[in-house]
Specification:
The protein has five helices and three strands, in the order ααβαβααβ. It is of the alpha/beta class. The chain has two domains: 78 residues, no CATH class; 41 residues. A three-stranded parallel beta sheet has the order 2-1-3, with helices on one face. Helix 4 packs across helix 5.
C-alpha cells in the first residue's frame, strides 16, 4: 500500500507538507465511505487509494460496501439521473425496496463516525 511519502519524489516536499497541514484539522476524526462495489468503478478505484492515504495522514478512514439486488441499483440510478435534471417516478414499491435495503445494511454496519460519504451510484452505468 502506498503512503503519502511514496509520492514525495513526484510532488516534492512542499506539496506533501501542504497535504499534512490541510489534513491536520481532521486528525483523529472517523470518516466512513460507503459505496456499492469494491472494484470495477471509478469510486472504488479512488477509494482503494484514498482510504489508505487518509489513514496515513492521521484520519481514521474506513470503507463499507452496501449490498443490494439489481432493482435497488436501478433505483439509485434513477436518483442519479434525477439529480441531473431528469424526472423521477418512484412508486411505493420502489420506495419500499430502497428503504428495506438501507435498513438491512444498517443492521450489520455500525455507523458511529464524524462524517459519512455515501456513493451508491458507482455500480450503475
Amino acid at each position: 500500500m502506498k503512503t503519502l511519502n511514496d509520492y514525495r519524489k513526484i510532488t516534492g516536499d512542499n506539496v506533501i507538507t501542504k497535504i499534512y497541514n490541510k489534513a491536520r484539522p481532521l486528525y483523529g476524526k472517523n470518516i466512513l465511505h460507503i459505496n456499492s462495489t469494491f472494484y470495477g468503478g471509478g469510486v472504488a478505484e479512488i477509494l482503494n487509494s484514498l482510504v489508505p492515504l487518509m489513514n496515513d495522514v492521521g484520519i481514521d478512514a474506513g470503507w463499507r460496501i452496501i449490498r443490494g439486488m439489481p432493482d435497488f441499483f436501478t433505483i439509485t440510478k434513477k436518483f442519479h439521473n434525477a439529480l441531473q435534471g431528469d424526472p423521477i417516478n418512484l412508486t411505493s414499491i420502489k420506495k419500499k425496496l430502497f428503504v428495506e435495503v438501507n435498513e438491512n445494511f444498517s443492521t450489520y454496519t455500525h455507523i458511529n463516525h464524524d462524517c459519512v460519504f455515501i456513493t451508491t451510484l458507482s455500480r450503475c452505468r
